[in-house]
Amino acid sequence: MIVHGVTAGVIAWPLTVTEGVLAAIAGGALGALSARFLAASSIRLPAILLLGLAAGIGVALLHLFAVQLGLVPDSLGPAGALLVGDAIAFGGGAMVYGAMLRTVSGRYPAMSILEAGTVASAFAALLVAHRNGAIHRPYALADQLIARGEDPTLAILAIGALGAFVIVLLLLSERSLIRSAFHLGVVGALLLIIFGTTTMTELPTPPSSGGALGLQDDDREQREDGQGGGGEGGQGNRRSSDELDFRDQYPSGGGAPDAVVIFHDDYSPPGGYYYFRQNAFSQYNGRKLVAATLAGIDEDVHNVFPSGGARDVAWAPDAGMDRTTVETTVAMLAENTAPLGLEAPERFVPATNPNQQRFRRVYRVHSVSLTQEFLGLLDRPAGDPTWDDDTRAHYLAAPDDPRYAALAQRILATLPPDLADQPVAKAMAITQWLGEHGTYSLQSRHAGAEDPTASFLFGDLTGYCVHFAHAAVYLMREAGLPARVGTGYALPEANRQGGSALLLRNSDQHAWPEIYFGPAADLEATRTPEEIALYTLADAYDADSLTELDWGVRADAMAEVLRTAEVELATPVRSRDAYLLAVMDPRTALDELAERSEKSIPVLLERAVARVRRQAGVPERAEPSTAAGWVVMDVSPQTVLDGEGQPPDPQLQRLLGEMARGSQPIDEAVQP
Question: Coil, helix or strand for 342?
Fold first, then answer.
């Protein structure tokens, strides 16, 4: 009874709610109990099996009656009907299956192997998602533990021990003492083999990727706080691998785990892919792109691990209408050369390592990640207006080969006139062309060429991400777009499967092109006085200098926030005390509003800005509040020979579908 009840509960746990699991446990136990009488009865086994089939059909009909017909839903409501349906399906199904299985093994002892196989399969299916080092799975078990900063290893081992205990109970139920002893001996021998061949105390170090993308080095040299004497963002903290390798045989990595990322905020990337940036390559050295050696270039990737304290990232964009703040925890399973973060990280904070034998280091990342779709970047200038001539020239440097410029012009000639001057449309046309004509393969023949990118682009167009990223960046630069190659990890959003944790494998290492987009040209001209006051309040809140604000600006801005909370967030703050609190202590008022409305303070301020802009009649299109910064514009090869390619970006497909018509004005071309 215990064996069948526990097994039924294990099978039902990932599939149903608590009530369904309890019903399955009860059904499995009752099925085993009824099997005692069926096995000892004079009824022939075929008749018993037919009876079981009829009982199974009856359970299915009862489930259909409870869920589909109107009597039960009308009486208990939809939620109650679903609970009753699950209880019938899992409880009745477990009872029928358990009774038949136990009856067969009772009549024919050799068939007890089916019982043992069912128990083993139930526990194996529960933990099969954990294979290959996926410590963040199964989600139903690991997600809650990881979110609390705990290591799910002990819980997984406990489930395995429970499975072994249940199998032992099943074997002890044998009538023959000799057979029971033999079975227990076999189980003991298997356990000894497992303990002797499995590393129980430490996760094996994943194999290095050889530094091909600048993420890991063979010699495992690490940059730590204070090493090299360069300081934050300086040149003294350079990683030992500062360039991308072109290889004819690129190692896939075998899927070994590199890191676990825990999301503390719900974030869905507009392109359907998460990009975790670790490094960038923008300096053209005459053959390829390498890490920048000039001061003031790519400061957002000159980062060190936050072992001594929080580290702010230079060049990080501000949160606004096209970006949002996302907090994650990164637990490294491999020795990477630098910290990685969801694009675009603005701060790295040390965190407690729950298991130093398993995780190399653990830290938190505050990112300002893109929420704006590519269509929303229309009218955005390429580059930063504050850059000097040397900086702009750095991000536009490309090979002297005239074929790059000729190909770029040929690609851009396909754009309709209304989009011909749009930087984002130029970039998307280039990535689309590469995706349509290129073939993704980990095996190529370009490494020995004087210009590997030219050998790829003007040759067979067969290569991996480093080839595609270099080709895209060169073509973008020829089109006047400041671009660079970013490296790190790229994973589809679907890999989260609704959980809060994401596993990064070395096979997820990736290189991609990035473009720097600035703010909309008419941004400052469309700001209302109320909006300016709100942004002043936001800046002072971030800088912890609210008390230094002009009293009138502070009061007016907080009044707008409170009005927005009343009108749009349905937060009860109408009392005189609340307004007085806003004037006297705006930080406390903001914190209280955020807690009551379950909205972050940046979201509260954004909603207030949107409200005052609507009242002033400012068009929604002119609403972006900050520069977009570096934006990933990845290539999605449609032909993949080996490795894992990326599906076409739906945003890109939508815009280019409109672009192909070539006759409509821009306002029509960007309609979703």
Answer: strand
How confident is the model over 91-129, as pLDDT tens digits?
A: 898 899 888 988 888 888 777 778 777 877 877 777 766
**Distance between CA 628 and CA 317 in Å, rounded?**
7
- DSSP three-state, residue 123: helix
Both 422 and 449 in one domain: the answer is yes
Which token pair is 457? 């682009």
Q: What is the dihedral of CA 37, 85, 8, 94, to 10 degrees?
A: 30
Side-chain half-sphere CA neighbours of 17 within 13 A? 10
| Range(s) of the domain holding residue 535 | 527-622
Do 432 and 410 form a contact (C-beta atoms < 8 A)?
Answer: no
DSSP assignment of 145-201: HHHTT--THHHHHHHHHHHHHHHHHHHHT-S-HHHHHHHHHHHHHHHHHHHHHS--S
Say what the pTM is: 0.63
Strand order in the sheet with 273-281: 341-342, 273-281, 483-492, 509-517, 629-632
Same-domain status, 505 and 532? no
- The number of beta carbons lying within 10 Å of the beta carbon of residue 225 is 16
CB 266 within 8 A of CB 330: no
Concatenated DSSP letters of 17-50 = -HHHHHHHHHHHHHHHHHHHHHHHSSS-HHHHHH
Same structural domain for residues 310 and 392? yes
Residues 305 and 359 occupy one common structural domain: yes
Domain end (from 517, 537, 552): 517
